[in-house]
Please model this.
Amino acid sequence: MKRLFPFLILLLSFAFGVCAQTDTIGVHSTAMNKDIKCVLIHPSHAAAPGTRWPVIYLLHGYGGSYAQWPETAPQLQQEADEWGILFVCPDGGLGSWYFDSPVDPSICYETFITKELIPYIDSHYLTIADRQHRAITGLSMGGHGGLYLGIRHQDLFGAAGATSFFLQVNRDLHLKLLEKKIDHDYTERPGGHNGAYWSNSIDYQILFFRKYFRKAV
Model:
């Protein structure tokens, strides 16, 4: 009976729709002298000894917040469980564009994400703490942040993406990547600058990141 008990608990969890655990945490930023809220979506099942997860950082858009991705793409909970991925959704301010401002010391979101948030996540959660298992992307302003930080910090991020970030700029970037023979996926789909588009497009990006993570195994 003792051997059956954990198995029964697992069956009941699936029967009642238990999915990934979602936490809202505050991570202190020394650079900005304040706590920054982040949503973490991580697998609900108990990890076997030695199990660690790859991480995808999801950046929100202009005027959004740390809650934008969980609200826009609720399927992230199921995907965290199915594929064993930790999603981290940090707050990037109303319009920081994920830069360190040269004129306003209260806006240092590049420093926060790359020097404060990543070490915090890797030290507090069961992550695979290397670039081959860490990706970053975002929507709109967060798409800019995903590519900006991914390109500038290739020691931290092995893959980067963007969705809904200035169509002609995206096309130009696509051509430049082809010219430089840099492997990438580029897709244009009909839709608007809205949640319905972002919710759909993020699934394709997660698929791209999953393939990248598997190559590192």
Strands lie at 21-29, 34-42, 55-59, 86-90, 134-138, 159-160.
